TrEMBL record:
Protein family according to the UniProt entry: Belongs to the bacterial solute-binding protein 7 family.
Major localization class: periplasm
UniProt protein name: Tripartite ATP-independent transporter solute receptor, DctP family
Alphabetical UniProt keywords: Periplasm, Receptor, Signal, Transport
Length: 323
């Protein structure tokens, strides 16, 4: 072999190796959320990350960041736009800032229960609202997650709206969450999720509201003696990915979409079952769990659901009610 061809062959070999390396390069997506590592939300996100890695032969890696390590909920929503995160769990009430109608499912007493939620999840209405959010932001809704019915915890029984008058209650920092406490004369105090336990412990706030699985994994029952089953909101989460993230994974975007949709249903089923089991569990821990007549609370809120301040249309309201 002529000597002068050796450098040429070496160069060609290097290009081949570089090309092969590029074809097997891993694209890493950051999935951020505010929930603890022990929660079903985090554990199912880790399951999804494993599935995506397996089905893409390692071409797509999802790294899950729990417990607000990449920001509180407002910040991770903003992060989708600036590229600091790629995928998030977030409540429709936080997404309301970007596209109001998609928050409809989080308004007080608007959802009738888990079966109604399932109907909404598979409906044309939810598909339209998801598309409206995409048009407004460029981000993609990949799944709706059941978060559970929100109940008020406190250090006294809450059995009627009058029991909440003047009550300083922590709520998430989103407009929809103010409706219920305002309707019953409470004093809503927006606060980041990560700050709630200490605020309850130190008496900065008197109460908070969350579903039973959240009350358990955040250990709010350690610093509140009563769980009052107001069920005033049936809450959801959205799994959202940025357009940039889906573009970066190229042909593997279909796998990511499919697995994250599966993850949404998987965690929903776990949370719903947990919700069914937890009343007895809390009572075993010595916590007072109070059954509540929801009627007077619903009466207090009802006029607000069709008022001028809601972000959804009356057509949205009617269609959701007919599901």
């Amino acid at each position: 072999m002529p000597f002068k061809t050796i450098p040429t062959l070496i160069a060609a070999g290097c290009l081949t190796i570089a090309s092969a390396s590029a074809s097997f390069a891993t694209e890493t997506l950051k999935w951020a959320h505010v929930y603890e590592t022990g929660s079903s939300y985090h554990q199912v996100a880790e399951w999804a990350a494993d599935e995506v890695a397996k089905l893409t032969d390692g071409r797509v890696e999802i790294k899950v960041f729990a417990a607000s390590t990449l920001g509180k909920e407002v910040e991770i929503n903003e992060g989708l736009g600036i590229g600091s995160v790629d995928v998030i769990y977030t409540g429709p009430s936080f997404v309301e800032r970007y596209y109001g109608p998609i928050a409809i499912s989080d308004y007080p007493f608007i959802m009738r229960g888990y079966d109604h939620w399932l109907s909404y999840r598979g409906s044309d209405l939810f598909a339209e609202l998801s598309e409206g959010y995409k048009d407004a932001t460029g981000n993609h809704v990949l799944g709706l997650v059941y978060y559970g019915q929100r109940h008020v915890t406190s250090n006294k029984p809450i059995l009627k709206p009058a029991d909440m008058e003047g009550l300083k209650i922590r709520v998430p920092n989103s407009p929809v969450m103010l409706m219920f406490p305002n309707a019953v004369g409470a004093n809503p105090t927006p606060m980041a999720f990560s700050e709630v336990y200490l605020a309850l412990q130190q008496g900065v706030v008197d109460a908070q509201e969350n579903p039973l699985p959240t009350i358990q994994f955040k250990k709010f029952y350690e610093v509140q003696s009563n769980i009052n089953l107001t069920g005033h909101i049936l809450n959801s989460l959205l799994i959202i990915a940025s357009d940039d993230a889906l573009s970066r994974v190229g042909d593997d975007a279909g796998v990511v979409r499919d697995i994250l949709e599966q993850a949404a249903m998987k965690v929903s089923e776990e949370i719903y079952q947990s919700e069914l089991d937890l009343v007895a569990w809390f009572r075993e821990q010595g916590i007072t769990v109070n059954e509540v007549d929801k009627g007077p609370f619903q009466d207090a809120v009802r006029p607000m659901l069709t008022g001028d301040s809601v972000p959804y249309t009356m057509d949205h309201f009617r269609r959701l009610g007919e599901l």
